[in-house]
Amino acid sequence: MEPFVKHSGKVAALDRVNVDTDQIIPKQFLKRIERTGYGPFAFFDWRYFEDGTTPNPDFELNDARYDGATILVTGRNFGCGSSREHAAWALKEYGFLAIIAPSFADIFANNAVENGMLTVVLPPDDVAELTRRAQTIDGYQITVDLANTTIQDNQGFTATFAVDPTVQHRLLHGLDAVGLTLQQEAAIAAFEERRPAWLTVS
Amino acid sequence: MAGKTLFEKIWESHVVHEEPDGPALLYVDLHLVHEVTSAQAFEGLRLSGRTARRPELTVATVDHNVPTADRGAPIADDISRRQIEAMEQNATEFGLTFYGYRSPNQGIVHVIGPELGYTQPGKVIVCGDSHTSTHGAFGAFALGIGTSEVEHVLATQCLIQKKPKTMEVRVDGDLPQGVTAKDIILGIIGHIGVDGGVGYVIEYTGEAIRSLSMEGRMTVCNMSIEGGARAGMIAPDEKTFAYLKGRKYAPQGANWDEALAYWRTLATDADAAYDSVVKIDAATLAPHVTWGTNPGQVVPVTGSVPSPGEMTSPEEQAATERALTYMGLEGGTPIQDIAVDRVFLGSCTNARLEDLRAAAGIVHGKRVHPDVRAMVVPGSTLLKQKAESEGLNEVFQAAGFEWREAGCSMCLGMNPDILAPGERCASTSNRNFEGRQGKGGRTHLVSPQMAAAAAIAGRFVDVREW
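YS: structure for the whole thing
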C-alpha cells in the first residue's frame, strides 16, 4: 500500500448528503473478479446519461473546473449502505486520495484506509466553508498533512482533525494490516487454545 | 462494579490483543463468504502466499449474482458465471465449506447461516456484506466488512476493530395488529435517521422486540446498517435456543448443554448502561412505506409524501427535492394513491418462511392486479422446499405471482431480475437507493404483508383494513 503522508491537491465538491456506495459504484460493475479497473465506472449512473457515454453536465464532478481533483469534499454519512470495497477502489482510481466530510459510514471508512485513502472528519461548518471555496475559487487547492493532522489552503483556511493513531501509523507507513496482525501470532494461537470445542462447527 | 451489556460481554471475550487507545484484534468465530466480495480477497492470499487459517470456521455460498430462473440451465451471463465459478474454485482451493449453485443448502448467506445452525449466540460473525447485522438477532456480534478485511479474516481469523459505542433502542408495549418487524425497523430508522447509528452497536430491547419470532428479530437486526449502525443485536432467550436446537450445525449433546449454559449468561445485566438510549412506543407504530431514496425517508401508510418545505434544514430540503424528482412523486400525494408496477417478495430482510406464509395469507384466493408483475424469491433453497411442501407456491402461483429459485435477486438487481427505468416497485428488501433495483427503478420498502396487498390492489393499501 502506498503511504499517505502529506498531499496538496485540487478540491472537488460533491455537496450531497448520504451518498451511498450504490451511487459510488453501481451493482452492474460488481460482477468482475479483478481489484482494478473500476475508476471509469465511479458514480456511473450520475456521471453519464442513459447511453452510458455522454457526460451529464448536472453532475457536479463533471464540471471541467474539477478536472484533476485529488481531494473530495462532501456531505455527511458519505459511503453509506453496501459494504462493497469496489466503492473505495473506484474513488481511488478516479483520482481521489483524500475525502473530507462531516461523517462517514463505518465500513466505507475502513475500506478507504485499507486502500491508503484518507478520510477526514471535519465539523459541518468547516466542510461547508471548504465546499464554498471549491465551488467558487477556480483551481482551489488545499494541503492535507496527516503527520500533523492539519488541513490548510493558502487563503487563510486552517483546521486540525482527529485520526485514530493506529490508522495514522498505518497510512503514514503504508502498512499492510495482515502483516501487522500476523505479528500477533502467539496471541492468536493462545486465544485459539482457550476456545471451547463446541464453537468449531464443521 | 457496573454490569455489562450483551455487546460488551461478547467484545471482551473475543479480544485477542489490544494496544492502549488503539483498535482491538477480535477473534472471528464464523466467517460467511459469498461470490461478489471475495474473489479479490482470495487473489490477495494467493499473491502473498497465504492460506486460510481456519477454513472450518468459514462457510461460502453463492447468492448475490445467481439467476433465480431454472437452475438446470447454464448461467447465460459470462461475467456472472465466471464470478460464480471463481467462488467454487476458491472455496475448493482454500478448503472452505461451500454450498454451490445447485446445492440443497444454497441460499442468501444471511438466511442459510441461521437455518443451518451456524449462527449462534455469543459469536463474532463477519461477512463481506453489510446485512451481516442480521445474525445479531441471535445475540451475536455480527458485522459487515470490506474485501480487504475478508482477506484479513481468511488469513488471520481475526478482525481489527475499533470498539463501537452502545445504543439501546427500546420498543415498549404491544405491537398493534398488522404491524410487523419490518414496520418496527422502518419506524426506528425514520426516527434516528440513516446515520443515527453511525459508530454504535444497537441492542434492541423491550416487549415488542421480545414478542417477535426469530424471523422477525432477524428482520429488525438486518436493517441496523440502514440506520448506520455497526451492528444490531437482541439478547438470546428461550425462543433463540428453541430455534437453534437440533439445527444441523448447532452444538449437539453435551456440547449443547455447555453452549446453552454460556448463552444464558449473555443478556445485558440489569445495572449495565448504554452510551445512548432511544425509546419507541410500539402502540404508535403503523405499517410503513418509504417514499424516497433512503430507508429513513419513510411514512406510515396512512400518511402522504412530504414536501421539501416540510423539512427543517436546507440540506434535507435539497435531498427531499432530489428524491421526489427521482421517485416521480409530488409532495402531498397520499401513499395509498401510489400505484405500483412490480412487487418483489424476497431478500435477506424478508424472504423467510414466516414472511412467505404471511404474504400467502394475504393473496390466498385473490389475483395479482393486471398492471402488476409480482415475484417471490425465497431466501434459501431449503426454505423454498419447505414452502412448497406447505403449498405456498401454489397459493402464490394461483394468484399470478412468479415463484423463483433462491438468491438475492431484485434486492440489488445484479442478476437478470431488475426494474426497467421508471418502474415502481413495492419491495420487501432493505434499500430504496437510486437505481438499487435497476437504473431508474423506483423502490418503496414495505413488509411482506404490505407488498402482497399492493400486488393485489395495484397500489399501496393499509393491510390493517385488508
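YS: worth flagging: Residues 124-136 of chain A form the longest helix (13 residues).
IM: good catch. Also The first strand of chain A starts at residue 6 and ends at 14.
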